[in-house]
């Protein structure tokens, strides 16, 4: 399947998840499909695009018809395609609320993934988390875009992401949409942590101020099923810096 055969990225994304799901059905051996999604599809913006809900959880979907945000073509295509693809998978192939129809589809809606990794290069998500320390405007705009979409920045450690996938694969039964993030911070809160704990980077003052919206992280579905997060925001940020230093992408001013 080549993206060139489709009219848009959105069409290609939907075709991709449909192809995977249909293959699972044809195999007659797959009873659970675990899909890795993104919080770019889980905005707490109100349906009319004016203001935010008081919370972010699994019931939130990004309202693109009334999305009044200054989106770059890349950000728009990414968020829109991921939203449509996830909706297609859950509505067309997953079991309903009563457990009928389809097969078990688990959608893990990931926050911005940080932490240290065994990779020899800096992962894109870690680059976004450390963008203020790098004074990288393009990466910082991705952080701000996430903040504008989600009210604040939902963040999770890569180790917790891996454990969440294993957890959902090993449970006797699980189905539906789960937000995978245990930290929810504004870009200014992230910058202030860096400024207070890593003064050697001489963080620019322009990063220290910004909106601090009164929106709560209200997702407990994964925890209610027995999952335990091991890494808090401090550890995520510290490990992200350690990763960026190791790969040579972050050096002191």
UniProtKB/TrEMBL annotation:
InterPro entries, sorted: NAD(P)-bd_dom_sf, NAD(P)_dehydrat-like
An annotated Gene Ontology molecular function: oxidoreductase activity
Domain of life: Eukaryota
Annotated keywords: NADP, Oxidoreductase
Gene3D superfamilies associated with the record: NAD(P)-binding Rossmann-like Domain (3.40.50.720)
Signal peptide (from-to): none
Protein name in UniProt: Dihydroflavonol-4-reductase-like protein
Species, as recorded: Medicago truncatula (Barrel medic)
Top-level taxonomy: Eukaryota, Viridiplantae, Streptophyta, Embryophyta, Tracheophyta
Gene designation per UniProt: 11424920
């Amino acid at each position: 399947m080549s993206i060139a055969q489709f009219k848009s990225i959105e069409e290609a994304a939907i075709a991709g998840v449909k192809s995977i799901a249909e293959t699972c059905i044809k195999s007659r051996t797959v009873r659970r499909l675990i899909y890795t999604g993104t919080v770019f599809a889980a905005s707490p913006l109100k349906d009319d695009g004016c203001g935010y809900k008081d919370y972010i959880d699994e019931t939130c979907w990004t309202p693109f018809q009334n999305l009044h945000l200054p989106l770059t073509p890349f950000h728009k295509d990414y968020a829109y395609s991921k939203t449509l693809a996830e909706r297609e998978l859950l509505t067309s192939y997953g079991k309903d609320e009563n457990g009928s129809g389809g097969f078990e589809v688990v959608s893990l809606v990931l926050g911005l993934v940080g932490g240290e990794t065994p990779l020899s290069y800096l992962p894109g998500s870690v680059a976004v988390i450390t963008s203020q320390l790098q004074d990288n405007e393009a990466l910082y705009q991705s952080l701000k875009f996430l903040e504008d979409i989600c009210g604040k920045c939902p963040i999770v450690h890569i180790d917790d992401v891996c454990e969440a996938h294993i957890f959902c694969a090993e449970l006797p039964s699980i189905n539906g949409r789960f937000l995978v993030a245990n930290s929810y911070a504004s870009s200014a809160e992230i910058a202030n942590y860096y400024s207070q704990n890593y003064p050697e980077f001489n963080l620019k003052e322009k990063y220290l101020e910004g909106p601090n919206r009164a929106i709560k992280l209200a997702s407990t579905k994964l925890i209610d099923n027995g999952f335990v997060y091991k890494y808090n925001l401090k550890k995520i940020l510290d490990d992200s810096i350690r990763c960026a230093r190791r790969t040579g992408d972050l050096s002191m001013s």
